[in-house]
Each structure stands twice: as structure tokens, then as C-alpha cells.
């Protein structure tokens, strides 16, 4: 099956353009946009880990290594499309226009972290695996019924493809020819379980065959391949040609979350080798150098701007108004049962407040 679903690349590990078809569309502006957005989200991600280690954020799920998949797919979207992310997809949501301070706030356990910018159709990160997939299919079906040209994208990992929700979502989208992109980031692991132990299929892309939709396998560390394949899938979706499944083969360098120790289940030196050979940012840097787009001054400037933006987001997150303790009790039942009312009273007493 891997022969039927070859890995699609446009720029190889050394930064060489190996697919001439897209040559004219690859402008200096587009390549700089790739580099800028990947640098931005990598900076965000590293800062999140540092904040967690200092006790300033709760558990965090890092995505370093997966930047090309997330930025490439998000940049292919139009502003009125829907985004259904997981806990690891802040690279995609930030690129699409999510607020950075609120994204940090989410990992402080604050519900306000789930509120998107006005007009941005970004769902809260799905922590229950694969539940966002039928939601995306539904949103796409709704857009089709309304007669718009908007599409929906669902992000999910390799592990999610073993869930019923994955199959239900793809089936519905296929039956109704809904304008959806099912964007899989195959990072080889569902927490500690390697892909060979998760499934007997050789590829994830081949699962599209069952639903008679295009299944595309791309090098998820080649942002050029991800961007153009997502765009093509979206074009088909907007033209009424239904959904597409994209398998982006990638790797997370770090732990599953800050609560995980990857050395218990894999050899971390593999990550060092992948970083040297297949790093998504390094590949764009190599491409830029080979094509005369690399400009040290510009790189220094954007890195400074990004550092300021991230520091400001941390400040905004930390100065966000404290949560209202009543929120802990007030929204589960329409009328507070006496047991919870008593708990609330005792808690307020404990913290020395009347209401
Ligand atoms: C329904 C459900 N089952 C189990 C879990 C526990 N869990 C959290 S993350 C995860 C692994 C998911 O792996 P994958 O889909 O490959 O995504 P990745 O974390 O690699 O991005 C599991 C099993 C969960 N959150 N939800
Ligand atoms: Mg995974």
C-alpha cells in the first residue's frame, strides 16, 4: 500500500526543489511567510515549556518538529473556514489568527482560553481523541447546505484514526460530499504506543479508500508539500468535490506532554538525527539560501519582533483577571442542588468571601 500512497515532496531535506510543477507559485513572499510563521510558533512553543517548568502554566503538549504540517495547512485556509484542532495544534490555530495570550491561558486551565477572536471559527482544542472529526464533518455539511464556499479542517493524530469517531466523521463527510479536510499529523506515536502497535495498515492515507475520497500522503516536514496539497484539497472541497484525507508524516521532538518522559519508550537520539536532517525550519532556511532569499538582517528583525510579541502575550496572560470562584459551582445545574450549594458556601467561607 505504501507504493500506492507514495510520500509527496516538493522540497527535499537539502532544500532542493524537486517538483518543478509548483515553481512559479513559490514566491519569495510565500517562502518568507512560511519561515516567519514557523519561527513564531516555535518560539511560542518553547516559551510554553519554559513557563510550565517554572510553574506558571499547567501541563502543556509541545509540537516542536510539527511546524511545517501545522503552518502549511493553516496558511492554505481562507479566513471564513472552520478549524477543529487538538491540544497539540496551537501552531495551526495561531497561524490562522488565534490570540496568543488566550492560547497560553488555555494551559492555565482557564475557559477563556477557548474563546476565539471575533469572527474566527476556531473550536476549542479537543482533548478527547477524535471527537472533533465528526464536528468538522458536521460544520462542512452545514456550509454546503447553506450554499457557501467555506470549508472545515479537522486536525488529528495517528492515534485518532483508531477511534470510531474518525470513521464516522469520514463516512458522513463522504456520504454528503462535505467540504472538509481531514488533516492527520502522523508523528509515529500515540503517547508511548508506536504506530506499528496501533494499526495493521501500512499508511493512514489508504484509509480514505474505504470512503472513496482522495487520500494523500505528504512529507509533513516539507511545508511546500503540505501547503500545496492542502490548497488542492480545499479547492476540490469548494468546487463540490467532497472531502480529502491528508496524512502528513512528521515527528514530535519532545515529550507527549510536559507530564511525559519519552526516554521510557523511545530512543531520544532519534530526535536529534531527525532534527539535523528533516527539521522543517532548517529545510526552508536551506531552500532560502539556495535561492538567494536568505537575508540575515530580516531574520534578526523578525526574531526580535516575535520575542517581543511572545513576551507581551505572557504578560497579558498573567495579568488576565482572576477567575470567579462562582464559576466552579454555578453552571452545571440550572438550579444548584443543596449538596453543591453547601460546598459552595463552605468554599467561600474558607477563602473568606461572602459571594
Ligand atoms: C477518547 C480518549 N481516549 C484516550 C485519551 C488519552 N490520550 C490522550 S492523548 C492520546 C494519544 C493520541 O495520539 P495521537 O492521536 O497520535 O495524537 P498526538 O498526541 O500524537 O498528537 C491518548 C490516548 C483521550 N484523551 N481521549
Ligand atoms: Mg501521534
TrEMBL record:
It catalyses: N(6)-[(R)-lipoyl]-L-lysyl-[protein] + pyruvate + H(+) = N(6)-[(R)-S(8)-acetyldihydrolipoyl]-L-lysyl-[protein] + CO2. It holds the Pfam family E1_dh. The keyword Oxidoreductase applies. Its EC number is 1.2.4.1. CDD domains: TPP_E1_PDC_ADC_BCADC. Its cofactor is thiamine diphosphate. SUPFAM superfamilies: Thiamin diphosphate-binding fold (THDP-binding) (SSF52518). Coiled coil: none annotated. One of its GO terms (molecular function) is pyruvate dehydrogenase (acetyl-transferring) activity. Keywords: Oxidoreductase, Pyruvate, Thiamine pyrophosphate. The keyword Plastid does not apply. It is an enzyme of class 1 (oxidoreductase). InterPro entries: Alpha-ketoacid_DH_E1_comp, DH_E1, PdhA/BkdA, THDP-binding. Residues 38-325 form the Dehydrogenase E1 component domain. Heterodimer of an alpha and a beta chain. The pyruvate dehydrogenase complex catalyzes the overall conversion of pyruvate to acetyl-CoA and CO(2). It contains multiple copies of three enzymatic components: pyruvate dehydrogenase (E1), dihydrolipoamide acetyltransferase (E2) and lipoamide dehydrogenase (E3). This is Pyruvate dehydrogenase E1 component subunit alpha.
